[in-house]
Amino acid sequence: MRMVHRLAAVLAAVAVTGSPATAANAQTQARAAEDLRPALLTPADLPEGFVPIAAATDDDGAVTLGGNFPGCPSLDPVTGDGTTAAAVTYSKGAVGPYLTDALVHFPAGGAATAMDRLTAAVTTCKSFSQELAGITVRFTLTPAQVPATLGEKAFGVRMTGDTDFGIAVTADIIAVRRGDFVLWLNDMTVGTAGAGLVGTLARTAADRCAQQVKGC
């Protein structure tokens, strides 16, 4: 059980990390006052029992879309100089489900490029292996259906991981481009079946973004 908890802790930190934000260029500084947190899902949007366990903005940490997956370059973080971002992760227990909601504002044209790279993961990374928390996890990616009405472009993928210890990892991911914004939802569980949260919360997240952030 300790191994399961260790693996869960590593995976839960994929989209919200505590590392300091890196140097900003003039465009980033101009956006410093932009606060995307009101556009994120709140505890009231989630099923009962979920509590926030991590959050970050460009001011107090690093927000990533994708994650630290060397075996799949398409999932490398797409945020950086010129982007503004915010993210929050909720949990319902030590091994999940974990629900991460992130929003990134890109310079003009950047959101489309980021989405193209993320979408490529379903074809370029159909399977890959990676060590997490000292455990080798073999991931398989399969496309998932996403309502086209969520934004200009939307895609979904299920990441299924297995280990030599019989620990299963499941992550359902939806990414949506709305103008110069990319909305990211990640529902991750360890040792149990996926909770199916992203499919039910995607519309709520997209509507919240449209209501709270100009241009989304």
Automatic annotation (TrEMBL):
Keywords associated with the record: Signal
Lineage top rank: taxon: Bacteria
Record's signal peptide: 1-23
Name recorded for this polypeptide: PknH-like extracellular domain-containing protein
Taxonomic source organism: Dactylosporangium cerinum
